[in-house]
Write a structure and sequence with these properties.
By secondary structure, this protein is mainly β. It is built from one helix and six strands, in the order E-E-E-E-E-E-H. The chain has one domain. The radius of gyration is 22 Å and the shape is rod-shaped. The two termini are about 40 Å apart.
Length: about 120
């Protein structure tokens, strides 16, 4: 069976966990599905500090999936910092994931070329 798909999907997730006397976590996700493309973004931050003896623990993870296109890109960055020195040890984790896919669909199929060359593209100009 051959042909192209017009179904696109973007789903992103992020988690942040922090254990210590003072903690802060933040997660954020966003996804958009457009005609002929899908994109996603996820970010997570976890920071912990111990005021007592012992090392705090942090974990931040991101991920996701996009599907439906013929050209897919994905990139994840993860940074973990542990500062065990001094009276108040600190631990921090940062994670960011971006994903996109496009192709296999004619996203301009509903528009004529003469309509796009006119003075207005559906109120954008």
């Amino acid at each position: 069976m051959s042909g192209s798909t017009n179904t696109f999907l973007a789903a992103m997730n992020s988690t942040a966990q922090a254990m210590g006397d003072l903690t802060a976590t933040k997660t954020e996700t966003a996804a958009a599905v457009l005609p002929g493309a899908s994109i996603g973004f996820a970010a997570a931050v976890a920071v912990a500090q111990d005021t007592s003896p012992g090392m705090p623990h942090t974990s931040a993870t991101t991920g996701g999936l996009v599907s439906g296109g013929s050209i897919t890109s994905s990139h994840t960055d993860h940074v973990s910092i542990d500062l065990p020195f001094g009276p108040n040890p600190v631990s921090a984790d940062f994670s960011i994931t971006t994903m996109s896919t496009h192709g296999d669909s004619d996203f301009l199929s509903g528009y004529s070329l003469s309509g796009l060359m006119g003075p207005s593209v559906h109120g954008l100009f």
